[in-house]
Structures are given as C-alpha cells and as structure tokens.
Design a protein that fits this description.
mainly alpha, transmembrane helix, 10 helices, transmembrane, membrane, Glycerophosphoryl diester phosphodiesterase membrane domain-containing protein
C-alpha cells in the first residue's frame, strides 16, 4: 500500500500526545486491559516464575559470572522468541484498536495485528542489524583514538536516536497498512524528522518516571508480601505485581505510539 505523500511535519506536542494516549486507554479500557493481560501480563508472569533474575554464585569471578549469565540467557532464549512474537502481534492488534476509524472488533484487530507480524519483525531485524553494525564501527573508531568512554557515549546517543526515529514503524504498519519493512522504517523516519529531540525527551521522561514508580511499588509490595505470607507465596505475589505493572506500562507506551503517530501523520493516514 502506498504511503501518504510527503508533507510538512508538525511540531510534536508531548502534552497532547500524553493526554490523547490516556483518553484512548480510558475509552477502550476493558478491551485494552484484557489484551494487555493476555499478551503482556501472562507471559511476563510466566517468565518471572520460570526464569527469576539470575544471581551468580557468591565468590564467582568475572569469567564465572559471565558464564553463569550466558547459561541463563541460553536457557531462556527458546521461550523468549515465541513470547516476543506473541507480544508483537498483541502490540499491533492494540494499535489497530486504538486508531482504526472503522471500529474493528477485538477478533479483527488481533487478526490484523498478527497478519502484520512478518513485516514488523523484519523491520526490527533490520534496525537491530544496522544499529549493531554502526555501534561496532563507532566503538572501533574510538578505541583506535584511545577514547573508549566517549565511544560508549556516542554509541548510546546513536542507539537512542535510531530507536526514536524508527519508533513509529509499528503504527505505520498497523494503521497505514504499509507492509514493506524498509518503507515502514522510512515513513517513521519522515514522520519523526524535525521532532526527534522532543520525542526522545518525552519517551525517556515517561520511561524513567514510570520505571521509578514500578520499582517503588514492586519493592513496597514485595516487602509487604514477604512480611505477611510464606516465602513461596510472597515470591508469586511479587511476580504478579511486577507482571501487572509491566503490562500496564506496555499498554501506556502502545497508546503513546498511537497518539504520536496520529499527531505527526495527520488525519488522512488514520485507518488507511
């Protein structure tokens, strides 16, 4: 499907994006909470219980600790990949529900979301590959200049910039119906162009603030459960709290992507 013709990109309004995201969640909260529960809460809870955070053996040296972590992630990877695909489909389905003016049913939104998984996964693989190659080149250059610390900083800045500029690929695929991953990434870049710093600041601010809230609630909830319940039940309760907050955070970010795309693309792209 052809993407909309180029036009001047409006100035990004973070307050408007935030308010619209919250309004969209409120208007569709029953359906969105159910989808977030299925696609984010349950997988997150399963991972918390099956793969608790690894703690290297006491007294292990750096090499032993690295081997321990490699073994942990190696065991987790076969389960993480299908969960990632499932969450990608859920994300695209929720984007469809949040933005499609044709008011699709839940089944139609999920079907549309999973029908767009392949181009979305392809776009993420492309971004990951290119970012990895550029990161390696940056590090090699700064190591040659004997400025590794500056290389790490430059690499992080590049990663944040690339993530922000390609962040709207998901709504471009789900909402505008673009199925070519290269064109979806290009379209995202065009939409964000001129607003990358404002959008990056907004996303980082939301991420940091929400992460602090999640950590505080999780810590307080885990401590309280540890005082009131046996250890086994306290661990399960803490995992439920963490997974629930993670699902809510994922829902908020999906709604932010939808409202940001709607703001920067204009009404002509919605439900295209």
């Amino acid at each position: 499907m052809d993407s909309p013709s180029p036009r001047a990109t409006p100035r990004f309004d973070s307050n408007r994006a935030w308010q619209q995201a919250l309004a969209a969640i409120s208007a569709n909260r029953e359906v969105l909470l159910a989808l977030a529960g299925v696609f984010f809460l349950l997988p997150g809870l399963a991972f918390s219980l099956l793969f608790p955070q690894p703690t290297p053996p006491a007294g292990a040296d750096q090499k032993a600790a690295a081997a321990y972590l490699m073994d942990y992630y190696g065991r987790m990877l076969p389960y993480a990949l299908p969960v990632f695909v499932m969450q990608a489909g859920g994300t695209l389905g929720m984007l469809t529900l949040l933005t499609d003016r044709r008011r699709p049913t839940v089944a139609e939104a999920i079907r549309t979301g999973f029908g767009a998984i392949l181009p979305y996964l392809a776009s993420q693989l492309i971004v990951g590959f290119v970012m990895g190659m550029v990161a390696v080149l940056i590090m090699v250059l700064f190591v040659m200049l004997n400025a590794k610390s500056f290389g790490v900083l430059a690499m992080l800045m590049m990663l944040v910039y690339a993530i922000v500029c390609t962040s709207l690929a998901a709504p471009v695929i789900a909402v505008e119906g673009v199925r070519n991953p290269i064109r979806a990434l290009t379209r995202s870049w065009q939409l964000v162009r001129g607003n990358s710093l404002r959008l990056a600041f907004f996303l980082v601010l939301v991420l940091v603030a929400s992460s602090v809230v999640v950590m505080v609630i999780t810590a307080l909830g885990g401590t309280l459960l540890g005082l009131l319940l046996p250890q086994a039940f306290a661990v399960i309760g803490a995992a439920v709290i963490s997974a629930t907050l993670g699902a809510l955070l994922a829902l908020i970010f999906v709604a932010i992507l939808a409202s940001t795309h709607a703001q920067l693309s204009g009404p002509e792209a919605q439900g295209a």
